[in-house]
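Here is this case:
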Amino acid sequence: MNINVLIADDHAIVRDGLRYLLEAQGDIKVVGEAATGREALKKVNELKPDIVIMDIVMAELNGIEATEQICRYHPSTRVIMLSMRSSTEPILRSLKAGASGYLLKEAAGRELVTAIYAVHEGKRYLSNKVSDQMVGAYLNREEGLTDPLSTLSQREREVLQLVVEGKTSAEIADMLFLSIKTVKTYRSRLMAKLDIKDIPSLIKFAIQHGITSIE
């Protein structure tokens, strides 16, 4: 029986490489690909994959936000995050969003295959370089990490990413099916919550917290 996988990464060369690696196993089938977080949500709705391989930094909707929505609306689909970042914050945010696995891109390869099998069996899989101490802190709720993004609603976080990616209020309104006035209200509210006064500071905040890379 095949394990159906969706690959979500903004680089085509990465998607091609992962497809080749996974389909070489024989019992893993790549049923689709996505280049943005929003496209990943659409493909999950259409294809109902067993597992999503999710890049943490994605355009339009970052991997953590996409994972949260996938896990909420498609609980039978498991998500494995791929990231360049080994710091505590993105790992904890990914796990809290519902991810079943977290791999560092530098370790991706055979370890990704191992992670897919483990997650498909209902287990959690974390990259070997993720410390046991961090995992224990998360599981025991002892981690004292302050996450400023937790003060924002899901919609505010979505608007935040689109604003720092340079989308106009009209473009954001069209993407999120909101009025322009509502988008402006969300933007003002999130900046007030974060105590950020201007767009350059908002962009700096977004990069620091892995919401966007602004490539």
Observations:
- The radius of gyration is 17 Å.
